[in-house]
């Protein structure tokens, strides 16, 4: 690590502590040349392999941009999106893998988005799970109902009229 003051090519670690709930390490360093102290933060980097083959660093902002489109017109705040992006990054880090394909990230978003907003989840899932027909949407809605504790059976017009007491 180069000293930011005198550019000496070495430094000595004086203290190390975890930061960001264990997601990074904060190190206090001292330059043996000029004696000044400085702090560094180390994090493990996640990389993304795009469909074109280009490799780039993982970006929470890009997760938010992708999910924001699915959330248009829904009661989802920017704070909700930021928290979702953080949770996605944390779940990716927990896998122990450092490099992901874009589709893997899309799939990792799905469970977090399902908790946030079911309509946005369906919009997003239709892309990342390659829905081809209405049957795919119906199956996804049935799955959501089952996970919520419902029967999973579709509600027909006659069933809903009976339920409304008409």
Automatic annotation (TrEMBL):
One of its GO terms (biological process) is negative regulation of DNA-templated transcription. Its cofactor is Zn(2+). The keyword Ligase does not apply. GO terms for molecular function: ATP binding; DNA binding; zinc ion binding. Negatively regulates transcription of bacterial ribonucleotide reductase nrd genes and operons by binding to NrdR-boxes. HAMAP family: NrdR. Belongs to the NrdR family. PANTHER family: TRANSCRIPTIONAL REPRESSOR NRDR. This is Transcriptional repressor NrdR. It comes from Leucobacter komagatae. The lineage of its organism: Bacteria, Bacillati, Actinomycetota, Actinomycetes, Micrococcales.
């Amino acid at each position: 690590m180069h000293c930011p003051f005198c550019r000496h090519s070495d430094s000595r670690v004086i203290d190390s502590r975890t930061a960001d709930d264990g997601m990074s390490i904060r190190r206090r360093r001292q330059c043996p040349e000029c004696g000044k102290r400085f702090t560094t933060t180390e994090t493990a980097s996640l990389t993304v392999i795009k469909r074109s083959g280009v490799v780039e660093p993982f970006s929470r902002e890009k997760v938010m941009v992708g999910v924001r489109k699915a959330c248009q017109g829904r009661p989802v705040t920017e704070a909700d999106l930021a928290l979702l992006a953080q949770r996605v990054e944390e779940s990716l880090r927990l896998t122990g893998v450092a490099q992901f394909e874009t589709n893997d990230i899309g799939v990792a978003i799905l469970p977090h988005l399902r908790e946030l907003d079911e309509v946005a989840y369906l919009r997003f899932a239709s892309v990342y799970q390659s829905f081809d027909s209405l049957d795919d949407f119906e199956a996804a809605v049935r799955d959501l109902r089952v996970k919520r504790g419902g029967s999973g059976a579709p509600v027909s017009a006659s069933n809903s009229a009976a339920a409304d007491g008409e």
